[in-house]
Amino acid sequence: PGVTSGVFKDNAGAHYMKAGEAAPGVPGVPGLVIAEATSSFTSLLALFFPACTGIMAGSNRSGNLKDPSKSIPMGTIAAILTTACIYFTCVLLLAGTTEGPLLRDKF
Question: pLDDT tens, 37-62?
C-alpha cells in the first residue's frame, strides 16, 4: 500500500474499538489479537497532551532571555504549533500508507 492506494479513504473516520473486539464491531475469538481496552477520543488525546505540556518546561528557563515577556509566549506557541504539525503529518502519512487493522494492532 502507498499514498495512492486508497488506504487513506478506508482509514478516514472513527474506528474506535471496545474491549474484546478483533476489529470495530467484530467480537474477538481465540487466536485473534483483540483490543484490551476500549478506545475513545479522550484516550487518544492522552497521547498528544504530554507533547504540549512538555513544551512548558522550556518556558521555565526564561532567565537567559533578553525579552522574556515577548520570547516566552512566542516560543511556546511556535513549539506547540511545530509539535502539532509533526504529529498531524505522522497521522496523515500512517493513515495513507498503512492498512487499518495493522494500525490498530499491538505493534
Answer: 777 778 777 877 777 677 767 667 76
Q: Measured between alpha carbons, how far is 36 from 17 in angstroms, rounded to an integer?
A: 9
**Is pTM, for the whole model, over 0.70?**
no
Give the whole-angstrom CA distance, residue 35 versus residue 22: 6
- Angle made by CA atoms 101, 47, 17, in degrees to the nearest 5: 35
> What torsion, rounded to 10 degrees, do the Cα atoms 36, 88, 77, 79 define?
80
Q: Residue 8 in contact with residue 15, Cβ under 8 Å?
A: no
C-alpha to C-alpha distance for 72 and 60, rounded to whole angstroms? 9
Residue type, 26: V
